[in-house]
Amino acid sequence: MQIIRTILMILLTIVVVAFIAINWQSVPLNLWPLQNGDYLYVEWPVGLIFIVGILVGFVPMWLLHKGVRWRLNRRIGLMENTVKASSMGNPAPIATSTQLEAEAGKDPI
Q1: Phi first, then psi: what are they for 49, rounded to 5°?
Q2: Which candidate, 23, 56, 29, 26, places its Cα nearest to that of 42?
Q3: Which residue from 53, 63, 73, 77 puts its CA 20 to 30 A from 37's CA?
């Protein structure tokens, strides 16, 4: 399975590099409208705009993924430590539904 993923990544890299190499002419990129009706623009190659666009979309999602993964790893570690601590000592008794109903004054039947 790893070989298939590697082959697909190589093919994707070849396609992206070919796209960037073919489209390297500069084009105006309008960034922000100005008060006089013009735009603040830069002239960048299409390939560079493509790379920047990919990074603008990828980096926030990657950071979100890392943050969620970090938070979940902390929660898992906390739960594992709780289980270890409870298994070392006397575990708390688990109440059954009939015991809970008897404590509440209800008839268990």
Answers
A1: -60, -40
A2: 29
A3: 53
Question: For residues 28 and 33, what is the distance between their CA atoms, to the nearest angstrom?
Answer: 14
- pLDDT value at residue 103: 66
Q: Determine the Cα–Cα distance for residues 108 and 100; give it in Å rounded to an integer.
A: 9
Phi-psi region of 37 (alpha: psi -120 to 50; beta: other; left: phi over 0): left
Beta strands 26-33 and 39-45, pairing class: antiparallel
Residue ranges covered by each domain of the chain: 2-86
Distance CA 46, CA 25 (A): 6
pTM for this one?
0.59
- What local confidence, expressed as pLDDT, does residue 29 receive? 87
Q: Which residues of 29-58 are buried (b: 16+ CB within 10 A; e: fewer)?
A: eeeeeeeeeeeeeeeeebbebeeeeeeeee
